[in-house]
Amino acid sequence: MFTSEDKAAILVEALPYIQEFYGKTVVIKYGGNAMVSDDLKEKVMEDIALLKYVGVRPVIIHGGGPEITGFLKKVGKETSFVSGLRVTDEETVEIAEMVLDGKVNSEIVNLLNHRGVKAVGISGKDAGLIRAKKKLATVYDGDDKKKVDIGYVGQVEDVDTGILDDLLEGGYIPVIAPIGVDEDGMSYNINADYVAAEIAGALHAEKLLLLTDIEGVYKDYHDKSTFLSTLTQAEAREYIKTGVISGGMIPKIEACLRALDAGAGKSHIIDGRMPHAILLELLTSKGIGTQVER
Q1: Tens-digit pLDDT profile for residues 120-133
Q2: Sheet containing 25-30, strands listed edge to edge, beginning at the edge strand earlier in sequence
Q3: Inter-axis angle of helices 38-53 and 105-114, to 10 degrees?
């Protein structure tokens, strides 16, 4: 049971971090179980609203893979993946855009507005925010590898932050669906981690927070004592090369590295399954997750 003194101590502990991040931009990639669980969803929105009220400038990029898969199933369309990337034909990218922009994005905006903060939903297509190009999947066959065309899956080619600058200056929280468009006007579905990284870099954000379904990075995942609370860029690249970082953690770390290279201050992988993970990372001395720094 918390006493009055305990509650006061928590607020006092948060004060220097509120001062540090006041007026600073923090980019949050929102996905994983924190997006699926209604209880965690509410807590994430509370965290973001509180950050806004204490003077932080949040920017949200959201995923929506399970929602896309669910809708495809409803319309009788099979989902297949190559090297972890969804094979996306023209019909699938239309459905992905509809689900991400029309359903997921609008729900997040509504939840934030309900908490008294002003949020605006956009996609990477709005005001030329994200220019994309086709991304080919890498397929390994023994020691050989080849590039495979999997349809309308994209990668970020350029970010124009004009609309984000205007929204942030106007006191709004931008909520961004990870859809980009190429020079011919074709839409592409893009991995939200990579979109968050590019936007964090382009905005020179103080921090990039990637909400995931794991605690962070371990040297040996089976040995909890090997947890890495901090990684330098050089260490992260070496761990990828030697296989310490592997599988689904690779794109998360690559996104962290890209954000730093592009101009962000620090990157963090945090466990979105933990209630109020965002506040614990930003406004406490101990923090959570794995920090990637220069």
Answers
A1: 999 999 999 999 99
A2: 119-123, 173-177, 57-62, 25-30, 207-212, 266-271, 290-293, 230-232
A3: 60
170 Cβ contact list (under 8 Å, min separation 6): 118
Hey, how many other C-beta atoms are within 10 angstroms of the C-beta on 46?
A: 17
pLDDT at 286: 83
Residue found under tokens 């990684």: 231
User: Do residues 213 and 271 touch, judged by C-beta distance below 8 A?
Assistant: yes
> 233-242 and 249-262 are packed helices; what angle lies between their axes, rounded to 10 degrees?
150
The per-residue pLDDT for range 37-73, each reduced to its tens digit, is 888 999 999 999 999 999 999 999 999 988 999 999 9
Compute the C-alpha angle 218/37/117, nearest 5°.
100
Residue 80 main-chain phi, psi, to 5 deg: -135, 155
pLDDT classification of 134: cutoffs 50, 70, 90: very high
How sure is the predictor about 111, in pLDDT bands with cuts at 50, 70 and 90? very high
What b/e sequence results for 57-74 when a residue is b if at least 16 CB atoms lie within 10 Å of its CB, and e otherwise? bbbbbbbbbebbbebbee
Residue identified by tokens 């459905």 is: 95
Per-residue model confidence (pLDDT) at position 129: 98
**Alpha carbon distance 145, 247 (integer Å):** 17
Task: Identify residue 45 by its one-letter amino acid code.
Answer: M
* Coil, helix or strand at residue 23: coil
- pLDDT for 139 equals 79
